[in-house]
């Protein structure tokens, strides 16, 4: 039997489907501390990603960024798109 309409926008969940994340109270009723922690985590992740991409795309780069560079140079790294 279907659930009655909820007070949050009149959404009635389907019997065989879960509640969308946008309507999950644990997501949209986040505390300010959780939102601040999420924002800090996203900022750190973005900064690290940008630093890595700057190093990766530097044409004058002489050092290795990670272990995959060494394996590629030695021919030991199998790429997933390799045809042979």
Automatic annotation (TrEMBL):
Accessory subunit of the mitochondrial membrane respiratory chain NADH dehydrogenase (Complex I), that is believed not to be involved in catalysis. Complex I functions in the transfer of electrons from NADH to the respiratory chain. The immediate electron acceptor for the enzyme is believed to be ubiquinone. It is a single-pass membrane protein. Belongs to the complex I NDUFB4 subunit family. This is NADH dehydrogenase [ubiquinone] 1 beta subcomplex subunit 4. It is found in: Mitochondrion inner membrane. Keywords: Electron transport, Membrane, Mitochondrion, Mitochondrion inner membrane, Respiratory chain, Transmembrane, Transmembrane helix, Transport. Its main location: mitochondrion. Complex I is composed of 45 different subunits. It holds the Pfam family NDUF_B4. Residues 1-36 are annotated as: Disordered. GO terms for cellular component: mitochondrial inner membrane. It comes from the Eukaryota. It comes from Salvator merianae.
């Amino acid at each position: 039997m279907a659930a009655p309409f909820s007070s949050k926008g009149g959404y009635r969940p389907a019997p065989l489907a879960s509640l969308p994340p946008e309507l999950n109270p644990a997501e949209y009723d986040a505390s300010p501390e959780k939102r601040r922690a999420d924002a800090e985590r996203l900022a750190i992740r973005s900064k690290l990603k940008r630093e890595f991409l700057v190093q990766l795309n530097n044409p004058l780069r002489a050092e290795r960024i990670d272990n995959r560079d060494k394996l590629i140079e030695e021919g030991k790294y199998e790429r997933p798109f390799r045809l042979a």
